[in-house]
Every structure is written in C-alpha cells, then in structure tokens.
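tool_call: predict_structure(chain=1)
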Amino acid sequence: MAPRSRGPFLPVLAFAAVLALLALAVTAARGAPKRDVSLLRESQAASRRALLHLKSTQGEDGSWSDHPAITALVVMAMVGSGQEDFGPASDPVRRGLDFIRSHAKPEGGIYDQFYPSYSTSVCAQALFAAGTLEDEALVRNARRFLLDSQADESEGFTPDSIEYGGWGYEISPSREETHRADLSNTQLALEALRQLEALDEQDRARSAAPDWAQTPTEVAYGRAIKFLERCQNLDETNDQDWAADDGGFVYRPGESKAGESPDGGLRSYAGMTYAGLKSMLYARLDRDDPRVRAAYEWACRHWSVTENPGLGQQGLYYYYVTMARALQVYGTELVVDAEQASHDWRRELVSQLLTVQRADGSWVNENGRWMEQIPDLVTAYGLLAIQHATEGW
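tool_result:
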C-alpha cells in the first residue's frame, strides 16, 4: 500500500519543527553538558529492541492491549523513533492507526467505553504525529471535543468551582461528581491542545478575526491556570484551605495520592509536580513565573531516577515520561538537588532506563498501580521517555 498523502498537515508539522528548533537554540544558549555518543547509541539499540518487542505483541485487530489509548501511546513511540520501518506508512503503525480511528465518536471523542478525555488526548496526538491526510477531520473534531470537555461555564461551573478549568475521566449523567477534574487528565488535554495549537492559527488565518482576539485554545489555557493553581501547594496563589507552601502538586484539589503530610495538609509528589510544571508552561506561563519556579524548585529538591518521589515505585514510568517532557519543555540540562549536587537529567534517566530494560526489550513495573503491570503501556512510556531525553542529543 502506498503511503498516504501528508499534504494538509505539512504547515502544522513545519510549525512544530520551528518550535523544536527554537527550544534547542534556547537549550544550547544555556549550556548543555557534553553528550556521551556511546550512551546515545546504546539508547538507540535499546529503543530498537523495545520497538521489535511491541511489534510482536500487536493484536490481530491492530491494537495493543485492546485499548485505544495504549495503542495511541505505542503509535506515538513508534513514529517518534524516526525509524522507517516504524514510520507512519509502516504496517504496525498503519494498523494501529486504523484501530484508533475505529473508536472515533460522532461528537469527536476517540475512546472505547471509558476515560473519554484521557483517551482522546493521546489518540489525537498519535493521529497528529502520523500526519496523514485522512485524519485531519478526526484531529480537528478531537480538538473540539477536548475544548468542549473542559469544566467551564457551559457546563454550569464558575471560577469559584474547584473543578473549573480542569479535565476529568468522566462526566456523570446525573451530574453527581461531574467531571471530577484531576491533574492527570488535565495535563494530557493541555499537551494535546498545545500539540494542535497550529490548527488555531490556520483557523484564524481563514477567518476575519482580528489578530488580538484570543483563540479557543488560548481561552482554555486561561481557565486551566485556575485549576492548576488549585492543585499546587503554594499558599500565595492557591485559594484552598488545605494548601501548604512547598510548591509541589497534588492529584486534584483536595486529594493527593501521596496522602496527607504530618501537619494535616496534602503531600506533594513528583509525578503530579512534573505534570503541573509542564502544564503551566503549555498554558503559556513564563518559566520565571513564581508558580513555575516553585514547581521546578520542588522537583529539583526531590530529584530521583530510581523512584517517583512521594510514591516510591507507584506510577514510576508515568513519572519518567512526564519528568522527561517537563524538563525538556522547561529548557534545563542540569538539575541541582537539595544537597546542591548537579545532575545531568538526560544522561541519568537514559542510563536508568537501560539498566532496568528486560531481556525481551520491554519495560514493566512490578508495582502494578495505574496499570503499570501492562508491558505494552510501560514499554511505550519507556520509549517516549528516552525520546524526550535524547532529543537534540
């Protein structure tokens, strides 16, 4: 089968490439550690083993683990590898994309029975990464679905509601616990919207809207900042009584998967702190904004590549990929910990992932919380973390 046309997405992908080059230029200006070419080659070989393992576990229906979101993560990892036999026109990616497309809903969501926001966020990113002509309408519809799924005035939420500005797993028909917005869903929705941001520019160019008018995505960013503030332990900007002042993040307003601190507040933990850091940057807060700096400084104080600080081995690979993406977006090469020791985060993360890769090329977490007992999911996380860590190496 001949490769599908990539015409309409080329301007979007070119825009994304420019952003990547600008990020690399900023990183270079700040001074990067000398890169170990041999470690890069080892990471490429490890990635190759992981990709071949995933190829061997693909289902007859084109899925991984019979799950559109897991399939999307694998597709992103394959396309992001830059290897031709795992590119957009390759058989495993083509079949994976067909499985994702089969879950597109009339209202724009892309999911099976559960987790509409979460699944749509990663599926839209996978379709966008592949950049095929036939998927432009699906990607645009998914973007609209995500914008419509944010907790806002259209659903009866006001800025005083703790759900306001966030995304959650479900929207209850009875409106009991509607949305239950959380930072995990919110960070993925914001990542997808940021990846698809160039579509806003295309729409603006086609319309008569003035240049100063906010795009729908920019409006969503503004709402999201309020939700992010309410997930951060930063007393100055969080209007919730439980907020402490260490700068880290919790799962959702009033709930931390790491439990309570000894003084009765909610404990920050690393997976959500990196999710919050990344999300604030995606929402266009400056890296020198006090909220951003507080999150980054918390992450530095709790640096680790052997555990998810605050949760140990729980959610470890989700932490790896979120950390790598957040530090990449933040634009730092060295992390200085609480003991003032300097860490080349890219090298340390890649080295750790190479150390714990299994003989068959997969990764898996012996602690199965949040589905990390599933090799397909965790191997996709591992691949994406390596790709973020080695970008521009």
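agent: The chain has 14 helices and two strands. Proceeding to next step.
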